[in-house]
Write the structure tokens for this entry.
Amino acid sequence: MTSSEKSGPIDAASLADAEEGMSSQRNLTRWQKVLLFFLGLTYTSFHLLVLNVIPMETWAFRIVHVAGALVIGFAIVAACVPPADPRRRRWVLELLPMVLTVGLALYALAAMAIALYMKLRLGHDTYSLPEWIFHTFSWALLASVVLGIVFAWMFKPRSDRIGWYDWSLMAASISVCAYLLFNLDVLQFRMGVMPAQTDFWVATAGILLILELTRRVAGMALVVIAGIFIIYGFVGPWLPGVLEHSGYDADRFITYIYTDNGILGPTTAVSSTYIVLFIAFAAFLQASKVGDYFVNFAFAAAGRARGGPAKVAVFASGLMGMINGTSAGNVVATGSLTIPLMKRVGYKPRSAGAIEAAASTGGQIMPPVMGAGAFIMAEVTGIPYTDLIIAALIPALLYFASVYFMVDMEAAKTGMKGLPSKELPQIGKLLRQVYLFAPIIILIGALFMGYSVIRAGTVALMSAVVVSWLTPFRLGLFGSARALELAARMSIQLIAVCACAGIIVGVIGLTGVGLRFSSLLLGVAENSQLLALLFAMCISVLLGMGMPTTAAYAVAASVVAPGLIQMGVAPLVAHFFVFYFAVISAITPPVALAAYAGAAIAGSEPMRTSVTAFKVGLAAFIVPFIFFYHPALLMEGEWTEIAQSFATAMIGVFMLAGAAQGWFFGAAGWPIRVLLFVGALMAISGDLLTDLLGLGLAVILFLWQRKMAGSKPAPATGS
């Protein structure tokens, strides 16, 4: 029996530890922990100061943002697992590679130090420095990066310290940043246009560092996709049809990617502002245990209901997922608590993992934070953030209502019970602490009062500190510093993913493949608009498979959304259509990261768990098509039309859950399930006639089931 299955009140205090455990892969020595603490504290504090107090030049800010994430990322995430046994390390074999790699990295740092000294103390400008400084610097830098990555694969790391190859990669990250900042005034004009040879080697080293860190924190899928796009930039002249392009010189192509059209572009703009800010907000909620209150409140509200832990997963994962930023990360954080309890009350391991995966994925579409995708959408479309979260409200409610109906019907069908009252938090005590919701309420209120997203997030963060003073977990100076350091750790994955997605966006922009794909989609739409939508759905899901939500949407928005807009679709509808399918790629077989994370905790077979998660989240595959044809679900139109669409769509998702689970006020056979599915589509559609037909079919099926239940003979009773 696991700790979460033992009797006694539910305690969600382990959530922060679980989240932190995802970010840190090492049990470092004390001095290295102290170093990382100050690095993380400085990194997050730097962002908060620049965003609110001391503005900084845009390129410079983003360059430092990426470099800082690389340094911290290589320090806390080991290159490969499992770590080596310290007693069996063969230091003799590593001595020569270590001297060579670290020596090159230190030489690159020294060269930049000399250049900086000559510029600041001797008055040299970029062009008057001796040529050998940057020439030898670039070769030493690139060689140290390549050797550091290769040797990180060859020599398994120790769990108690940072490997020497990782120190070389950290030094290389600083060198790339120093070179870009040192030459910033000229690089902004020549990168991607007429780059110097040194620019090319430095940009290549920077791209390799980003790809390596992305591989460590997000897996190979995004790295492979980015690699394919980079290769596409060179092989375009030999490709057929819409994929063909004229090709580019390597120096222009690589340096273009490291500009504000690629790595330093919209995705990094979002990660350097909104993502860091709201992850810091989430870290303060966790450090003050306010985040735990959300989970405990969900347990108190739904824990006693049939299948209670599954309903808790729906509520808690929605609350935590919207500020988490990754579907799989939210599964690990909340699923470690809810999945064992779901199994305890009777859910099969496969269902428990799937329910948590579907609920955690839904957190990415839940306003007001919506993971991080809403920030990228606002950046790309120019639509005000407040308009986006208003539009997202009804689809998010429909999704979570559908998942709730799914778990309730499964519990009813199998006769499950809830958890005993003695094992749940006391609702009365929690109601007396309802003020802990204040940070979320302040965030929403500040947004609708006209504050910018950055200012509203900062105010909400400060309110989390103040609210913590009313709890036993009061955040003082050290507690706040610990939360800032935790925020840096938690943000590394998303920052790396955004930077890597910037590579893909840069290639799409340079080659023009996005515009050509839009033309292809427009051609398909001339024959059938529905076929074009299905095509766009498949591409969005395929692009998102294996990638975190942020990167999935960033890529799909560059490839698919422009084509939908050319078809005449409003930008808001087009981007929400793409966004939803990018999000639910996390529970779409065969590559479903959130479902795989749930399966690992539940101890179930990953592929079967992903299929079950697909079924639980079925509504998310239908609702985007409905708001495409009837934008009332996105709050577009008269309030009467919006109210009608919402009410009938809610009935529709209830029927959809019944069709998927084979239960509709009683067991439902296949004929009834087929009719339920048809009725669900009609009720969700939004048209008055189809709504009435769907509702009529629901009433007929309800009366039929009541009649059949009444005609069954009563079970015989023994004497």
Notes: The two ends are 40 Å apart (CA to CA). The chain has 32 helices and no strands. Residues 178 and 241 are 42 Å apart (CA to CA).
